[in-house]
Write a sequence for this structure.
C-alpha cells in the first residue's frame, strides 16, 4: 500500500538536460592540461593517479549493452533511488542486453557477493522516493587484501563493466582504492563514484554539493520553523535543537539561513566550551531583560569535536582507555582535562567513560551535546546575580527524519543526472572518477558535467596512528560565502524574533517553491 | 522576512460554505426538543443549563457592528489564526464600527486586561499560517471569585458584545463557567467556545473533531514515514517514537493508520506493563528470527496513565509525597507498587520522586516512557535464551513540531468556518455554547452547523479531592471505527514492512492530496 503522494511522485517527470537525452551523441573526453597529484598520494595510487578530468563532448558514439553493479555506502540520503533509476534508464537505452545488479546492504554485499538483478518494476516503484531500501546500505569498508580480492572476484564473476559506488567521503576514497586495485590486477570493471551525503561536507572545487543535503535541510528547516512558531506562541521555552551532520556545520548553517534562530552554533568557529556557555547565557539574560523567556538555538552534531579543550580531553581518554579502568582514567587525565571532566554532568561523564564506537574510541555521536549545554547553562545562570528569569529548556534532535525524506525536486533531478553521467562513464571505460555537476544554481541546461579523478580529492592523513589516503571533509569556510552572510545578521537575530517558517517541502505549484535550491549554493 | 510558502499561504483563497457568505440571510435558531442536563451539572449552571442546541436557518437578519474579544487558551494547534481571521472578516462585514480585541497570552490577559485591538494588516499577516503568536496563549484558568469578577469587569470595560474562547476541554469548561457567571451577574457579553486541541480528545456526538488534530497528525506522519524508510534502509535500528497528545491515543491511532508501523501501543487498551514489554519483546524476537533487526514502534504520550499498576503506584506516590522524604516514599509504597518501582530504571525512579507538576503531583508528561520501555525491553531480551539478535534502539519524541505547523487545508477551512459561526453567535446573542460542524468528511457544502450548549458536554468529576464540572476527555473507543480497522491489520504489520510514507503536507496540486481529511473521521 502506498500513499497518494508516493503515487504522485512516481509519476513525476524528471527534467533531463538536453545533452544527456541521447547518449549516441556524447562521450567523455579527457580534458587538456595535467593535474598534479601530491607525491604521497601518488604512492598509494600508482596506476590511477595520472589522469585528468573528463568533460562531456558532442561526438557520435556507439552504445553497447552494459552490465553494471551499484551499491549504496554509508548513511541514507534522499535521491539515491533516482541515481539507480537513471543508471537503469541509461543502460536500457544503450542496449537490450543491459543488466543492473544491486549489491545488497552496502559494500559487504560486494565482498560477499550478495546481490540481485534489478527489474523494471522494482525501479519504477522507487522513482523520486526517499530511502535506500531498494538494495539497502552499509558501512563496511573494502580495505584488507582479502576483501579487495573478493570484491574483484565477484565483480569479474558478475562480468561487470562497471561498479557505481554511491557514497560519501570515505566511500569514494574506497572507490578510488578499488579502482586502483582493479587496474593493477588487470580487472576491467570501471569504478565510478557518486557524491552522496546529507552532511554537505563532500565538497571541493569540482564537487559543488553532495546529494541529499537539500532534502535533509528542507525537512529540518520545516521542523525548526514549526518549533520557532511554537516558541513564539507559548513564550516559555528555550528550544535547543541538535542537527545531524557531523563533523561540519553546513546543515546548521543552511537551516539557520532558512529559519533565523536566535543563535546557531557553528563548530568551525572552534570556541571554547566556556565561551559557548557564556554566549548562550548572555543571550538568555539579554532576552530575559527584554521580557523574553523563550528562544531557539541550533546546535550542530559535530560541535563537540571542535571545542579545543573537549577535543584534547577526548584524545586523552581515547589513549588512556586502552588499558586503564574508568577510575584510573579520571586520575590520569592532564590537570586541565580533569578539571573539565569534573565540571561535566554525570550523564555525559558516563558516556565519555563507557560508550565506545566500533573502533573502541569515545562514541562522539552518542554524546548528547544538547543536554550538556543545557546543564552547563543552568549552572551558569544560577551564578548570574542579575538574572531573574525562568529558564525552561527543551531539547530536540533531528536526524533520521531528514535522511530518508522524499527527495526535493532539486535532489531528484540532480541525482537522476548523476546516474546518467555514471552510466556513460562506464560505457566510456573511465575508472577511479567521481561524477561532478557544476553550475547547480543555474537552470538545468546550464549545468556543466565533469568526471573528476578521485585522487584529486585525496590527501594523506593519520588515522588511528596510521597514514591513510582520505578525502578531506570540507568544513564551513569562515572567511566567505554563506557564513559571512550569517555572521552579518547574527547579532540582530539574538533579540529579534525574526523567525522564518519554511513549511513543508512542496512538489506542486510555483517553480520557485518546488524547485528551490540550497541557500549555501547561492551565496 | 517571510518564506515563499508563507507568502503563498497568505494568498490562499479559503472555500466558504454558501450559507456563511452573507450573514444578512441567516441566523441561529433554537432547535426544538429539550436536552436533559444531569442534576449535579444543573447545580453548577443554574442560569445557563436550560438551553437547547441552535441550528443555522435562512432568515433575513440585521447585521450590526460588534465588539468581540478573542483569546487562545492552552496548547497551540494549527489553524487558530484562521479562527481569528474569520471573526474579523465576519464582523467587518457586519458593520463599519466593528472591532476585534485580542486578549494577550491566554486567559490571564482577560483577568489582567492585557489586550490589543487587532488591525487588518496584522490579521492579513497570519492567514492560513500556524501558531498562536498573533496574541499568544496561556494556561491560566479563570476560577476564583476574584478572577471571575475581574474578567467580567474587563469585558464590560471593553464593551464587548462577545468573548470567543479558543480552547480544549478545560478551556471550554471555563467558557461555560464564565458564561454562567456573566448571565448571573447581568453582564451581556456572550461567551462562545471553539473546539481546539491537537489531541483529538474533545469529541462528542456533536463535536466530530477539534481543530489542529489533522495538521499535527500529518506532520507527525511525515516524520514517522521518513523514519520508517530509514529503518528499512539501514536495517539496524528499532525506532521508539513517542507522540504528543495525552491522555487519549487518537494521534497515535491516526498516525498508525497513515504509516503502518510494526507496532502501535494504544493506551486505552489498559495493558499491564508486563504485557506491553512482553508484546514488544515478542515482536523483536519474532522479527529477529526472520532476519529483521529493525522496526518501528509508536507510543502515545499518555500510555503510562493507562497502565493499571503504574497508575496505582503514581497515585500512591502522589499521596505519600505530601509529607514524606523520598526514601520514606519507597518504604511506604504498597508491596506491589514497591516491587514495580524497584524494577524501573534509575532515571525514571528519579523522575517519579523528584519531578513535580504545577499541582505538586508526579509530572507525568516529563516521564520518558520511550526510555522506560527501551530499558525494560533490553532486560527482558537478556532473559530470552532463544534470542540471538542485536537490539539497537533509538528514541524520538514528536510534539512541538506538530502544534505550530502550517495548518492543512482541512484545518484552514474548518477553522475559518468555526470563526464565522462564532461571530454569528455573538450577533445573535447566544452564550455558553460551543461551535459544532458536522459532516466534516463530506464536501464543504454538506457541512452542518450547530451551536451546542457546553453544559451538554459537562459532567462532574473528582479533581484533587474536589467535585468539579469538566468536559470528559473522549478516549479511543475500543469497540468500533478506526480502532477496529487498526486491530484487523495489526497482526500482519508486526512482521511485514508494509510501511506507508505520507511525505510532507502539500498545498498545491490535486484536491485528493491537498484536501485529505483525518482517517479517523472516515472510518
Amino acid at each position: 500500500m502506498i500513499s497518494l503522494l508516493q503515487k504522485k511522485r512516481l509519476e513525476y517527470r524528471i527534467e533531463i538536460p538536453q545533452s544527456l537525452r541521447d547518449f549516441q551523441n556524447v562521450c567523455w573526453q579527457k580534458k587538456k592540461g595535467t593535474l598534479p597529484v601530491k607525491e604521497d598520494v601518488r604512492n598509494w595510487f600508482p596506476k590511477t593517479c595520472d589522469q585528468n578530468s573528463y568533460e562531456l563532448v558532442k561526438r557520435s558514439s556507439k552504445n553497447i549493452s552494459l552490465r553494471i553493479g551499484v551499491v549504496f555506502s554509508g548513511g541514507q540520503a534522499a535521491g539515491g533511488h533516482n541515481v539507480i533509476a537513471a543508471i537503469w534508464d541509461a543502460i536500457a537505452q544503450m542496449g537490450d542486453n543491459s543488466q543492473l545488479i544491486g549489491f545488497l546492504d552496502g559494500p559487504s554485499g560486494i565482498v560477499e557477493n550478495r546481490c540481485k538483478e534489478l527489474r523494471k518494476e522494482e525501479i519504477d516503484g522507487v522513482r523520486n522516493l526517499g530511502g535506500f531500501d531498494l538494495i539497502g546500505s552499509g558501512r563496511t569498508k573494502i580495505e584488507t587484501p582479502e576483501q579487495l580480492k573478493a570484491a574483484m572476484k565477484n565483480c569479474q564473476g558478475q562480468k561487470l563493466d562497471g561498479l557505481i559506488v554511491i557514497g560519501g567521503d570515505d566511500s569514494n576514497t574506497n572507490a578510488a582504492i578499488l579502482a586502483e586495485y582493479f587496474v593493477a590486477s588487470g580487472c576491467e570493471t570501471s569504478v565510478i563514484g557518486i557524491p552522496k551525503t546529507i552532511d554537505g561536507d563532500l565538497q571541493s572545487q569540482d564537487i559543488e554539493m553532495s546529494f541529499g543535503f537539500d532534502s535533509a535541510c528542507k525537512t529540518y528547516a520545516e521542523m525548526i520553523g514549526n518549533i520557532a512558531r511554537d516558541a513564539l506562541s507559548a513564550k516559555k521555552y528555550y528550544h535547543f535543537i541538535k542537527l545531524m551532520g557531523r563533523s561540519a556545520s553546513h546543515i546548521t548553517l543552511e537551516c539557520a539561513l532558512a529559519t533565523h534562530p536566535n543563535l546557531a552554533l557553528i563548530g568551525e568557529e572552534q570556541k571554547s566550551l566556556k565561551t559557548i556557555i557564556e554566549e548562550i547565557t548572555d543571550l538568555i539574560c539579554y532576552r530575559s531583560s527584554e521580557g523574553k523567556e523563550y528562544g531557539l538555538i541550533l546546535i550542530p552534531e559535530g560541535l563537540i569535536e571542535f571545542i579545543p579543550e573537549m577535543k584534547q580531553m577526548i584524545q586523552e581518554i581515547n589513549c588512556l582507555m586502552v588499558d586503564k579502568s574508568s577510575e584510573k582514567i579520571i586520575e590520569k587525565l592532564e590537570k586541565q582535562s580533569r578539571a573539565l571532566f569534573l565540571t561535566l554532568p554525570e550523564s555525559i561523564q558516563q558516556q565519555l567513560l563507557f560508550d565506545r564506537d566500533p573502533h573502541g574510541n569515545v562514541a562522539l555521536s552518542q554524546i548528547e551535546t544538547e543536554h550538556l549545554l543545557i546543564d552547563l547553562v543552568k549552572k551558569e545562570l544560577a551564578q548570574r546575580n542579575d538574572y531573574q528569569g525562568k529558564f525552561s529548556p527543551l531539547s530536540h534532535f533531528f536526524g533520521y527524519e531528514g535522511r530518508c525524506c522524499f527527495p526535493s525536486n532539486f535532489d531528484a533531478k540532480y541525482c537522476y543526472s548523476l546516474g546518467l553521467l555514471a552510466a556513460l562513464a562506464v560505457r566510456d571505460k573511465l575508472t577511479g572518477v567521481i561524477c561532478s555537476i557544476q553550475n547547480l544554481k543555474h537552470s538545468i541546461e546550464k549545468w556543466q558535467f565533469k568526471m573528476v579523478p578521485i585522487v584529486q580529492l585525496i590527501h594523506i592523513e593519520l588515522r588511528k596512528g596510521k597514514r591513510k589516503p582520505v578525502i578531506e571533509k570540507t568544513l564551513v569556510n569562515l572567511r566567505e560565502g554563506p557564513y559571512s552572510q550569517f555572521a552579518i545578521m547574527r547579532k540582530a537575530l539574538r533579540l529579534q524574533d525574526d523567525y522564518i517558517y519554511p513549511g513543508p517541502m512542496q512538489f506542486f505549484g510555483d517553480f520557485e517553491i518546488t524547485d528551490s535550491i540550497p541557500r549555501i549554493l547561492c551565496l
Notes: Residues 219-400+478-509 of chain B form a domain with the Rossmann fold fold (CATH 3.40.50.460).
